[in-house]
Structures are given as C-alpha cells and as structure tokens.
Amino acid sequence: MLNRANTDAAENFFKSINVRLDITHPERFAHFHPTKRNTQIIRSILLGEPSPASIIVAAYGSGKSLTAGAAAMLVRNDEMSRDTLSTITERIAMVDRELGETLVARVELRVRGLVIVLEGNESDIASEIFRQAKECLSSIRRPRNHRGDILKILEAIWRKASEEGCDHIAILWDEFGRHLEALSTLGNTEELLLVQRISEWASRKKHPSVSFGLILHQSFLHYADNLSQSARGDWKKIEGRFSTVHYVEDSREMYELISSVVIQLGGGQKQ
To answer: Is the separation of the CB atoms in 242 and 85 below 8 Å?
Structure first.
C-alpha cells in the first residue's frame, strides 16, 4: 500500500500540465523524469537545436506539455524553482550527460532567461507577447510607431532582455493546432505569415539567443482541410522553415521509465 507521500507523488505523476499556468509552480514539475526522446524537446527549447525554429509533434497524452514546461522552467531559472531544477538536471544528466552538465552549470550560475507562452488560438499575437514580456521585464516600453508590427515589438523585448542579462528567450506556442484550425475555418491563411516572420527573426538572434517552438499533435496540413490547393502549398512552405521534432517514445524507454517511477513510489530499490 502506498503511504501519503507516495500517493501524492502518484497523483502528481499523472496530472496534466498547462505550460502557461503551471510554469510558476515548480512543484508541479517535480515528478518529471526525462528520457532520451524528450531531451530532444529540451534541446530545442533551451538551446535552439537543431534549429531555433521548431515544430514539436506529439500525440495526446504523450507528456509533451510536461516536458515543454520543464524546459521553460530551465530557461527562466528563477530562484523559487532552484530545488526542482537541481533535481531535474541531475535526472537529465543520467540520460544525456552532455546536456545535463550544461544545464547543471546553468542552474548553478543562476543564468536567467525569458519565456513567453502562447496558447491555442491567439487573436492578437503581438499584444500577447508584449503583455507577457512586460510581466518579467517591468520597465520595458512599447516601441514608438510600432503600429502592431510584430518585429518591432520583438526587437524591443530582445534589447531589454539583453540589458537585463538574459541569455535566452524562448517563445512557445502550445496547442498551436487550434490556431491553425481557426485560420483554416475562417480562410485567413495570410495571418500565418506572422508565424513565418517570427521564425525568421528568431533564427537570426544571438546574445541573447531565441527559440520559437510550435507544439502540435499533427503536421500543418492535417489542419488545412478547408483550404485551396494553393493555400495548402503556402502552408507547406511555411512549415518547411521549421525543423520538426517528433516526440515518440520507444517501448524500451517507456518500460524503463515506468519501472523507475514504480520503484520511486514503492520506496524500493532497483535490483
């Protein structure tokens, strides 16, 4: 029988994660156990590898939001998350030594980053990005005569983040498929060009570096049923500007992860 502490751990292990709402609650990520597969997502978000602009494709219930949230916490690296991050980086080092050592050093040096999390169908991307940036960079001001230009707003955020010592900016868009569905339903395909502009901008920034990650359940074209052949071709071109990270765990790693968690919950030791 599980004791109270183990029962709480079990409940946390199976709890769903909302990246935007939970990122400031490190205890909700304490049960995160990395695998070689999901360290690819961490590399994508934190290091911009293999490309600063990426599409993370994973099925429902695969744990992609938990992994993305843990990566976002590692980018922020704030004081209240220190203990949880130390535990997570030690676990990462067990499956990816190089990445783990990089992250352990980053946590110890207290290097900060900026995280912006979009979610679902966003009607005003520029305003939402700026709103979240202002929560972390309180003295930032909107650029004059920006007229809603997403690149002017991003540049203002990037400069201020640099001034405040941030080494990386991660822009995540969770449930991006819902945004694609809305664009497809309304036939508003041109708005997807904003996503292309952000990806191109992110790919050119250094010190601080920038990553732009779209989290999806399927490829772009699975959301394009209502579009003409020409519009589908345009979407395909935009998708091609991103590297794709397919998050599919192999059975061996899943069995090893389950074994590790069962041992942890049962208080036993691995034989």
So the answer is: no
